[in-house]
What does this fold into?
Amino acid sequence: MISVLNNVSSLIAENALSATQTSLQNSFTQLSTGLKLNSGSDDPAAISIANGLGANIAALTQSSQNASNGAGLLQTADGALSQVTTLLNQAVTIATEAANGGLTVAQQTAAANQFQSILNEIGQIGSTTNFNGVSVFSNTAVGIFTTDGTSGGSTTTDVLTGDLSLTGTSAVSADLTALQADVTGGATAPTGLAATTVDDVTAAIAQVAATRGTIGASVNQLTADSNVENTEVTNLTSAQNNVQNADIGSTVANLSQYSVLQQTGMAALQQSNAAEQNVLKLLQ
It folds into this structure.
């Protein structure tokens, strides 16, 4: 049937060419972005999965940083306590020297003053040591928050160093308070009291060591948490890549296919339109 009202073959060729153009544009977009999901219409379900994985990755990445910061705070405390141990070792030497009956009164006084100076230095370490503006030595626990971005995947790890002062309430501070009482009461004088001071200093050293052990265990826990979270980030990133990243080889092949189809479609549309011109020959 010959007709001039509707060029069906041209419409078919035009629709096919339009679909080819859309597919070709999608291939260009995927190659330029590296993603096969560039809009919600590409694959709504896959977009939802990719975005969910992205949220998990962001939460875990920050959680790993939180754990690392918590470990950094505790390591700062451990370093300060290491210096406290050094000072207490000096205090042992002074107390032991003061227990010797061969010292003059002036020498006993000098020993007591030096002992007091050591205690003051320890108190200053306790009051001035901080991490990111947060006091390191405190009886208030610092909560380290970690999450995988889900409602059931959040935990808070409380880390506690205890205060470090001559009047505090932690176990270490109690020992320091006893040492301060020794000095105030003249326990560094060359009597049996000096030997008592040696015992008190030794007890303080042992308590500092125990505190450092507790801190070390917490550091190991937070470090392990950070390592686990980093591993999860790696695995989830791989999963997200599989969902949203374009297969470049396949996309390039599609680009070549659609380029050829575009050319053949244009030729088909041109031929369809030219065929209608043949009707005019019947009127000549």
About this structure: The first helix runs from residue 8 to 33. The chain has a mean pLDDT of 84. Residues 56-244 form a domain with the f41 fragment of flagellin, N-terminal domain fold (CATH 1.20.1330.10). The radius of gyration is 39 Å.
